[in-house]
Amino acid sequence: MNILNLYSGIGGNRKLWKDVKVTAIELNSQIANIYQGFFPSDKVIVEDAHQYLLHNYKEFDFIWSSPPCPTHSRMRLSNKNKVYPDMTLYQEIIFLKHNFKGNWIVENVIPYYQPLIKPITLNRHCFWSNFHISLKEFPKMHTCKIRKEREFLQKQFGFNLDKATNIDKRKVLRNCVLPELGLHILNASKKPQNNILF
Q: pLDDT tens-digit profile of 50-89?
């Protein structure tokens, strides 16, 4: 399976995938380098994922996209600096629905507003896809003091960032999709089925 992993971060969603060819797109070169260290056989490209998708989607069998979430997060309501929600999320859902022939998934946070396109919710994420994903319980992410939280998340996700520099380790880890959830979704995409959503 030839997979495009957009906005890859350090690869939480990808951690348990086996026997796949992955192209990861990450704009932050420091984070891309960390990803490459964890997944040396993956092709890692430092580029704008939104534009990469537009020009390269036909080359892949499966696409996972996790567009930036801060403008959709429920935490946004308590932020004094108000911003418009970033519509990249919905642009990609609509684009993939009408143009991509393979299976695809778009992931984001549970938003502070009623989603414009109905997702399914697993763990602390919303997912939009063109294949059926069964509901399943996964370990919850706990919040605690920042240093303790980072240590907990490193253990939960199986990524050691102790040697990483010049990045917000806690934020990078909080942006990860739980590896077991990433595997659950990839396995769901492999099951024979008709495209069912939308």
A: 999 999 999 999 999 999 876 667 666 677 788 887 889 9
Rounded Cα gap, residues 49 and 182, in angstroms: 19
The domains found in the chain, sorted by start residue, are: 2-138+178-190 (3.40.50.150)
CA 147 remoteness from chain centre: 24
* Cβ burial, residue 45 (10 Å; 0-12/13-18/19+): middle
In this structure, the number of other CB atoms found within 10 A of the CB of residue 190 comes to 11
The two structure tokens encoding residue 111: 């938003």
Structure tokens given for 121: 């919710």
Name the E strands within 43-191. 43-45, 62-65, 103-109, 120-122, 125-129
Name, in order, each residue with C-beta under 8 angstroms of 56's C-beta and a sequence gap of 6 or more: 4
